[in-house]
């Protein structure tokens, strides 16, 4: 049965992709003609690039709608736009959905972090009141880990029977033997020095300061730190004097460049306190790089052959694990890397996308039976 799906893809209508945008892009990119899925991908800002894959099996529809500050693009503009397009199902892939749902609507809630932050005024009303109403009307909710499923069911018990877990995949580039150089500016800054790779950006729960302290107390004056995930203007400017000249911030990286950065690192440091999924825990291991993290939230399910896990507040244990990784013999590291690459193959975007399509069809069958 051919299926026409509307995909809310505002996270592709940007200058640089972030985590949710990667999720949306991979669903579109991993659709094959034999899947019999036709897309209409919706963006909200014609002035910005729309990073849908080429070729897209369907069409792109980027439109402005007045009152976007008050979320009217989502609540009014999008439902109006669905009319006359033959769309059978809408997938709101970016945590929120409209209350008015002219067609069966699914929403992906990646995690509950936005609802736990200290929002005020219109933002608080939109997340806590408007979205509660929207979720009551949704045909189903998709999430990305058992940890997120538990958090969502606890916050909105009325969606528990409509909640499906579909884990993410990681980019195909992590399973390719192709090699690309790092951006020249980063290569020049490193100058061939050994480095640790921090993933996460500036959010407090990601703990960039923890990563810097590990480098400062590693006993290795030659060891550098590369930080990823910092948007424009978010990289810290006041760095410890002990790390002068040894902390670098990566520019926006394509997936192929990110793989190169992982593969060149002595280890990846991922000290986050909560994640709905946790891409770096899998990506590092797929790239053959040891990764240090705490088995919290969804990360408890991402402990593979190249993972060193420690309690989140036990700094001495983290430091001991780092010393162990840095002293790992090449032969032992290569053996673990081989096993880790095989382990990481379970996180396939194609497998994830196929499960999404199953949910789409199950949803339409359920609504057709009413």
From TrEMBL:
Domain Glycosyl transferase family residue range list: 192-334
Domain Glycosyltransferase subfamily 4-like N-terminal: residue ranges: 19-172
Enzyme Commission designation: 2.4.1.-
Broad class of enzyme this protein falls into: transferase
Gene Ontology molecular functions: glycosyltransferase activity
Keywords: Glycosyltransferase, Transferase
Keyword Transferase appears in the UniProt entry: yes
Pfam families: Glyco_transf_4, Glycos_transf_1
CDD domains in alphabetical order: GT4_MtfB-like
Keyword Nucleotide-binding in record: no
Protein name per its UniProtKB record: Alpha-1,3-rhamnosyl/mannosyltransferase
């Amino acid at each position: 049965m051919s299926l026409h799906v509307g995909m809310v893809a505002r996270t592709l209508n940007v200058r640089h992709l972030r985590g949710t945008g990667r999720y949306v892009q991979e669903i579109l990119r991993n659709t094959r003609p034999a899947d019999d899925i036709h897309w209409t991908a919706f963006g909200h800002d014609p002035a910005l690039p729309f990073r849908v894959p080429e070729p897209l099996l369907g069409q792109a529809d980027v439109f402005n709608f007045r009152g976007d500050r008050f979320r009217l693009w989502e609540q009014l503009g999008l439902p109006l736009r669905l009319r006359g397009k033959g769309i059978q199902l809408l997938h709101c892939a970016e945590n929120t959905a409209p209350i008015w749902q002219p067609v069966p609507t699914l929403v992906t809630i990646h995690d509950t972090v936005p609802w736990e932050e200290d929002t005020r005024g219109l933002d608080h009303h939109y997340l806590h009141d408007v979205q509660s109403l929207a979720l009551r009307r949704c045909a189903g909710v998709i999430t990305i880990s058992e940890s997120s499923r538990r958090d969502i069911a606890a916050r909105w018990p009325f969606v528990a029977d409509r909640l499906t877990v579909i884990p993410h995949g990681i980019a195909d580039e992590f399973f390719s033997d192709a090699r690309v150089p790092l951006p020249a500016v980063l290569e020049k800054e490193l100058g061939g020095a050994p480095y640790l790779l921090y993933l996460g950006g500036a959010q407090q729960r990601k703990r960039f300061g923890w990563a810097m302290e590990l480098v400062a107390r590693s006993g290795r004056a030659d060891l550098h730190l590369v930080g990823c995930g910092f948007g424009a203007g978010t990289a810290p400017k006041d760095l410890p004097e002990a790390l002068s000249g040894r902390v670098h911030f990566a520019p926006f990286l394509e997936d192929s460049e990110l793989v190169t950065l992982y593969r060149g690192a002595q280890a990846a440091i991922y000290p986050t306190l909560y994640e709905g999924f946790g891409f770096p825990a899998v990506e590092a291991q797929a790239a053959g790089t040891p990764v240090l993290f705490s088995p919290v939230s969804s990360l408890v399910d991402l402990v593979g052959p190249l993972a060193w896990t420690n309690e989140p507040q036990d700094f001495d244990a983290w430091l001991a694990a780092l010393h162990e990784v840095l002293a790992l013999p090449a032969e032992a590291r290569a053996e673990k890397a081989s096993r880790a690459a095989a382990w990481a193959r379970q996180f396939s975007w194609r497998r994830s996308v196929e499960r999404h399509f199953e949910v789409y069809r199950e949803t339409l069958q359920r609504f057709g039976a009413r």
